[in-house]
Amino acid sequence: MRTPKDPTSPAATAAALLPLLGGPANITSVAHCMTRLRVGLRDRTLVQEEPLRALPAVLGVVADEDTYQIVLGPGTVARVTPEFEALLTTTADELASLGAELKEARRQRNATPGKLLLRRIANIFVPLIPALIGCGIIAGLNGLLINLGWLGALTPALAAIASGFMALIAVFVGYNTAKEFGGTPILGGAVAAIIVYAGVAKVTAFGMTLAPGQGGVLGALAAALLGTYVEKWCRRWVPEALDVLVTPTLTVLVTGLVTLYALMYAAGELSTGIGTAANWLLTTTGAFAGLILGGLFLPLVMLGLHQALIPIHTTLIEQQGYTVLLPILAMAGAGQVGAALAVYVRLRHDHSMRTTIKSALPAGLLGVGEPLIYGVSLPLGRPFLTACAGGAAGGAFIGFFAMLGNHVGSTAIGPSGWALFPLLAGSGGLAMTAAIYAGGLLTGYVVGFGATYVFGLGPTLKGALSSAATGTVSGTVSGSATGSVTGAVSGVCDPSEGQEIARGGNRTP
Known about the structure:
Layout: H1 10-20, E1 27-32, E2 36-41, H2 49-54, E3 60-63, E4 68-71, H3 76-86, H4 92-110, H5 113-125, H6 129-148, H7 155-167, H8 169-180, H9 185-196, E5 204-205, E6 208-209, H10 216-237, H11 240-303, H12 310-320, H13 326-329, H14 331-346, H15 351-365, H16 370-380, H17 382-403, E7 408-410, E8 424-426, H18 430-455, H19 458-469, H20 495-504
Antiparallel strand pairs: 1-2, 2-4, 3-4, 5-6, 7-8
């Protein structure tokens, strides 16, 4: 293996990671999400964690139940992963077999029905996020052009480009649902396509004429799930000679009839209820609802429970054009940024921590919070709670304006922080919506900073900082970004406890 000339290149990063993870024989699987390289390990004791965290490209490390995750950041991880996989080609077959066995063994030990369900929901909807973001930004640009009265000949084309995916999103949900639950993906898409077909307007169910799109993504999910079970039943009982004809026919026919005469109506009522409940919640108890949602979102992310909100966001976007929940939940990231800035100011003698914050802060401002969570706030303990306080304040700010009739929403899911501005939409016009969202971010920054500066570091750490400032204590605050707080800081967060929180907290896709 040749050593790459550029030590900061993706190839160099991959080459540096592999031996620190125990070498090729210790790797059982490789994957990546938006920010993390996820590897399955045969023996986690072979990982050299301290040198791993010290690599320039590594923003943090998270040990999940199923995978060992190296936080590299958006863009970087997509370039490093292929290079890392290329280093493993010589033992690919052996590793794949071993990885499958170990993964299945861990899944049997650790998986619970709730966690598996959330993971499957994420696997269905997360692949749709890039299209939602792209179409959402185009929709926002088109709205801006319409409001300004510019390029009138172009705006209808932009509207078609932005709306095409959303008009057929049920088909993609059905395809991914069948794929996730072991059915034929194209059959899942076929039964879900019934929901958006214009001809359903000629069908009457429960005394009501159906409308194209009624039930939305929830109906598509239910239809594809039912179709998968019908298909599996047919595979067991239909003779092989007839399988190619009978199985797809029965799958589409039976599932289609149930979809038209039951699922579309039921899912439509549920979707309407979700939209009505979200609007009522913010209109009636907006400030309090924002306080709770903004304050609890970081713990939800840490536990992976935020995945349950993905279908709700998607339903609101499909139904109303935007989700009113995401801007409020995005305030958790603002609180996290404010808390990190306070830690940066207070720990002026901890060069390691300040370096971690400087490298992770730009991503945090753009809504990628894992580097700050797992490199700063969770290892220190209290700053995680004060970051939640900042999120609660920002959420209450946006919720208060919702009570006044100015709803702030996002036309797509995925981005937050400053990256959410191009996706904003609301009931009060673009300028008002952007101003309210900016005010919420500012509130989250200020409260997160203030709460952390005053309460987030603890009396023991404050004493250490005071001594360090006079030169009597040197180097007592070190290694915080790796999950351990040593010396005089040990009273703030026990080192082993900090490592366990940082390693076990994340459950995101």
